[in-house]
Amino acid sequence: MSGLAPRPSIITQHSSLITFCAGLLFFFIPQTPIPAPQPDVHPDVHFAATPQAVADAMLALAHVTPADVVYDLGSGDGRIVILAAQKYGARGVGVEIVHELVERSRLIAREGEVADRVTFVEGNAFDVDISKATVVTLWMTASFNARIEPKLRRELKPGTRIVAHQFPIGDWPPEQTRTVDGEEIFLWTVPPR
Ligand SMILES: C[S@@+](CC[C@H](N)C(=O)[O-])C[C@H]1O[C@@H](n2cnc3c(N)ncnc32)[C@H](O)[C@@H]1O
Which domain holds residue 82? Predict the structure, then answer.
């Protein structure tokens, strides 16, 4: 053994160089922008997507036709109103509080060639005028549905159909109930005033 300090092996030298270059790259390459958090946005329920077969059954239960305007309150990735336009020829409006989901819905609508028939409104379902709807769809929570019931009864025209996935609306008895792939859906019609 000589008294000299051991020289770094060729592998150690290379890995130091690689780490140095990677550091430089990280520093100089522009990073993917992280979406800014939305202040004061508090979804009543987090996003989950209604399975496509259940979404289709909801639209079929409401007998959606090209004459309809389908509003989905809390529209997530937009799938219900996009399907309403693509398969049933309806017009659709999605109301969604999360900006990123609104952007995603608009992109999917463009790719699905129905951007001329569907609109996505970024906002709170409680604040949006829903009086033009002829069909309303919901997949929220039992407490959300109970809280939005007065708005549904006040703003929707008599004869407007409401279809909810999984949860009832307060004590309002549904006219029809179906089970699709193990998931319950309910239908109501807004009564004459
Ligand atoms: C369970 S997901 C349902 C998505 C879609 N309707 C479906 O069935 O596939 C509920 C959606 O409602 C949105 N949301 C929650 N509270 C809301 C509110 N007060 N106004 C508008 N959207 C809301 C959430 O961001 C989420 O995307």
Answer: 52-189
Sequence-separated (6 or more) residues with CB below 8 Å from residue 44 = 74, 140, 141, 143, 144
What residue ranges line ligand 1, CB within 6 angstroms? 43-45, 47-50, 72, 74-76, 79-80, 95-98, 101, 124-125, 139-140, 165
Q: Judge whether 143 lies within some domain.
A: yes
Global pTM reads: 0.84
- How many domains in the chain? 1
Q: Any idea what the CATH number is for the domain that residue 123 is in? A: 3.40.50.150
Strand partners, 138: 73, 164
Could you identify the atom of ligand 1 that is nearest to the CA of residue 137? 6
Please check the confidence at residue 52 and state whether its pLDDT lies above 50: yes
**Does the structure show a pLDDT above 80 at 33?**
no
